[in-house]
Amino acid sequence: MNAKFIELFKETLEIEEDIVNTETKFRELEQWDSLAFLSVIAMIDEEYDIVIEGNDFKKLVTVNDLIEEIGKRKA
Amino acid sequence: MNYNPFILNGKTILVTGASSGIGKSTAIECSKLGAKLIITGRNEQRLKETFELLVGNDHALLLADISEATGIDLLSDNLPQLNGVVHCAGVSKRLPLKFIKEESVSELHKINFIAPLMLTQKLYKKKLLLPESSLVYISSVASSYASIGSIMYMSSKGALNSFVKGLAFEVSTMKIRANAIQPGMILTELSPILSDDDKLKDSELYPLGRYGKPEEVAWAAIYLLSDASKWVTGSILTIDGGLTLR
Fold first, then answer.
1. CA B136 – CA B15 distance, rounded (Å)
2. Is B6 part of any domain?
3. Contact at CB, B96 and A42, closer than 8 angstroms
4. Model ipTM value
5. Tens digit of pLDDT per residue, chain A (75 long)?
6. Model confidence over B90-137: pLDDT tens digits?
7. Which of B98, B99, B195 sits opposite A58 (nearest CB)?
8. Searching chain A, which residue's CA lies closest to the CA of residue B93?
9. Cα separation of the two ends of chain A
10. Which residue of A51, B31, B147, B199 is surrounded by the most CB atoms within 10 Å?
């Protein structure tokens, strides 16, 4: 799950360098903006059939938080 | 003094998408000005809630999904002749370009653009639109004002605006009028994708300092339905707290 998600995440933000891991605070990425935000929401919807609403998304900080949120909702 | 050119006494008005938001508010406000309402929508429970809030008697509720031809048939088979229609049924989905699928764009255009077109055609062909009736379509400033992820929604509302202009021209021979209202963000129709903080920040971009309220759109619909707008057709009325000034 982790490796696959990181790949999808990088693809979504068009990041080619090896700079993303589970501890990455995604809002601190140079590529993070409102398009990146909507793209990550759309990617998670498309890949996992989960829609994370704005008020919940705001609480997530790291890539691992995203993975855990998906896991929690899939359970 | 009883002078009120915006009165809707004696007018029978169909409101689509009346189960929530602008549609709900429009139905209620029209009833306060004397109209006989026929409200339609997909959600029976919420539609009934709107119905309970209508002022006066003789209103009707018709459950129908007008995004399907069968729903349009069902609705039109049960309608009386109309003096006005306010088309509020609509949906929004934000997807960046890369994530748009033909299926998502078709679904959204079907509800926001094709449904109002096909319903209008049906009402027209069945002669349910009385001479001098008024057709009002709820569009959005998003028809030409861009925001991230709004391509599908923008294009559906752009199509709706152009449709209204073409329609206004075609039905003018019957003295039927067709106009659109394009609001900015209205409080009830907010996308849950944005957090409350993001909404607050976004609402501060509006020169009048806030998002709109459903009744502020409903009152414009009342103007367009009433005899006060008898010489108004094909117009796209912007109600956006000044958002698109800059």
1. 9
2. no
3. yes
4. 0.84
5. 799 999 999 999 999 999 999 999 999 999 999 999 999 999 999 999 999 998 899 999 999 999 999 999 987
6. 999 999 999 999 999 999 999 999 999 999 999 999 999 999 999 999
7. B195
8. A42
9. 14
10. B31
| Domain range enclosing B57 | 12-245
CATH code that applies to domain A2-74: 1.10.1200.10
Q: B4 in a domain, yes or no?
A: no
Residue B2 lies in a domain: no
Asked whether the predicted pLDDT for residue B5 surpasses 80, the reply is yes
**Closest residue to A35, CB basis, from B96, B194, B199:** B96
Which contacts (CB < 8 Å, 24+ apart) does range B237-240 have? B237/B179, B237/B180, B237/B181, B237/B182, B238/B141, B238/B182, B238/B183, B239/B181, B239/B182, B239/B183, B239/B184, B239/B212, B240/B141, B240/B182, B240/B183, B240/B184, B240/B206, B240/B212
The answer on pLDDT for B68 being more than 80 is: yes
Choose, out of A8, A38, A40, the residue to mutate when testing the contact with B (most B CBs < 10 Å). A38
Distance from CA of A22 to the nearest CA of B (A): 23
Distance from the Cα of B95 to chain A's closest Cα (Å) equals 6
Look up the CATH number of the domain holding residue B146. 3.40.50.720
Which residues on chain B are in Cβ contact (under 8 Å) with A42?
A: 94-96, 98-99, 149
Domain count, chain B: 1
Distance CA B66, CA B90 (A): 11
Sign of the alpha-carbon dihedral angle for B88, B125, B37, B83: positive
Euclidean distance between CA atoms A36 and A19, whole angstroms = 16
Tokens describing residue B20: 């929530």
* Reported confidence tier of residue B194, pLDDT bands at 50, 70, 90: confident
Please indicate, yes or no, if residue B140 is contained in any of the structural domains. Answer: yes
Of B99, B194, B198, the CB nearest to A39: B99
